[in-house]
Fold this sequence. Notes:
By secondary structure, the chain is an alpha/beta fold. About 40% of the residues lie in helices and about 15% in strands. The chain has helices at about 20-30, 40-55, 70-85, 110-135, 160-180, 195-200, 205-210, 220-235, 260-265; strands at about 10-15, 35, 60-65, 90, 100, 140-145, 185-190, 245, 270-275, 280-285. The protein has a seven-stranded parallel β-sheet with strand order 3-2-1-4-6-7-8, with helices on both faces. Strands 5-9-10 form a three-stranded antiparallel β-sheet. Strand 6, helix 5 and strand 7 (about 185-190) form a beta-alpha-beta unit.
Amino acid sequence: MTGRLTGKVAVITGGASGIGKASALMFLAEGASVVVGDLNASNRELLTGEAQTLGYGERFRATSANVAMEDDVAAMIELAVTSFGRLDVMFNNAGIGGAFGAVTETTVDDWDETFAVLVRGVFLGVKYAVRAMQTHGDGGSIVNTASVAGVTGGGGPVAYSAAKAAVINLTKTLSLELACQRIRVNAIAPGAIQTPLLQQGRRVPVAEVASTFQPWPEGGRPEDIAATALFLASDESRFITGETITVDGGLMAGGPHAALIAKNAPSGWVGMNRGTTGQAPTVHKR
Length: 286
């Protein structure tokens, strides 16, 4: 079998649903061996069954991993190395909606949990992925999921937007440190993509909201982001590092209209959106 990732080993966090699942299946189809880390046990089980049905079972592993916990991340990377012998690609994709509501009502705990998953999770993923990549000495590719919310005001809740902005800067800074080791570090900034995470808590379908201000007539799909991750993971992008690729159907080209995304979130409520982790959200009326 020959594919764009044949012989490569990849770890994908938040890999059992949405963008992560689409990426895992695409990477497998292109010849990679893949380890998925995800907190949601039922989603992991479903993806494992799908991978086996498609004939990818020998090249696939799934494990529970909280990316905010150092031991979990270290164990996930170790699983990739012990199962497949090396690590070539780290896709730091796990995410949550995080703290939402008025800044005056946002708790410190919710703010810290948001940054723990979205920023500390990337830091830990890079830390342990780089250690594994250094052992074979021929470089690698790190891909981080950012967001258009990280480059514009009003594209998402305050904590989420600030955390994604941190991911974009972290990507640039790490690319400088790691270039001499031939380890590339890039990010993807999705727009309105039809995932369970983005739809949670919204009054109307994301596709319906996006159609009012997104130039491209079709809604974004997880596969659109997965295809970009595949390009960044492959040797086709060997001379690209420190970049954030926006994949948004022209949304950012339209300027401040991106703020409409945030305006369609529930108003008058405060709490914590834990996405598709299987962990319950906390919500209360302010």
